[in-house]
Amino acid sequence: MSATVEFAKMNGLGNKILVVDMRGRGDKVTPAAAIALNAADDTQFDQIMAIHDPKAAGTDAWIDILNSDGSKAQACGNGTRCVVQALASETGKKVFTFQTVAGILNAVEHEDGTISVDMGKPVFEWDKIPLAEEFHDTSRIELQIGPIDNPVLHSPSVASMGNPHAIFWIDRDPMSFDLGRFGPLLENHPMFPERANITLAQVTSPSSITTRTWERGAGLTLACGSAACATAVSAARTGRTGRDVAVKVASSPNQGMLNIEWRERDGHVIMTGPAEWEWSGTLDPSTGDWSRDAAPGAEAR
User: Fold this and answer.
1) Which residue segment(s) compose the domain that 54 sits in?
2) pTM for this one?
């Protein structure tokens, strides 16, 4: 078996993704390889989407997802769109079914190049998100940062989109908050036994939201698809918006937009947005050693 595999450096609204082709192999991308790849400027990423041979009949692939700290992730909506674009370019297919540890994901590439991913049903039960304490109503839980009488952030909505999310509702630009300081404290708060993705959300109209996210296992990120989904359903659940919203990601290049629909007929969340290929190369999934495909100015690492 060759030591190296093909990979693509991609992004979804700036969410930095490595799509790694592990088909035909029995090994996996190791946590050590993920950490090494993230330490290099050119291959720094938010998530690795490792494509493996399918495990279940009727699926196109098993997707193993790693965060930049080497930990496992259950879901990555922006990364899933990158996988769809990569496989659609390779195969000509437009419709895909993937299996992840969070369940089955169905996706389709549209004629305009945008990609829709069925992210499944949101989970609101406290013990399934999970939380460390019982809350009957998870649309607003007791959690705050800052002075008791004047907290900077407080009373988040919490939900799972296959991974845990806490959404703090704010009344000004999310970029005006020091999320780089609050994010680690909240991600690792005792309330979240499996840690959590932390999102600041500003509702700008009944059909639009602006967000910024501290991503579990990755830190400040330019975009997070599952966070956009969790924010949209939480906004609808609390009466802040309708069930079909545009989520503007404040930290992404050009403040990119995702459309999130929380379907009433089956409760599924449909995320639609772009994906972008940047460059390709090969890497060793055991060590993280990599090289870029031949191109002007490219250097091996």
Assistant:
1) 5-113+276-292
2) 0.91
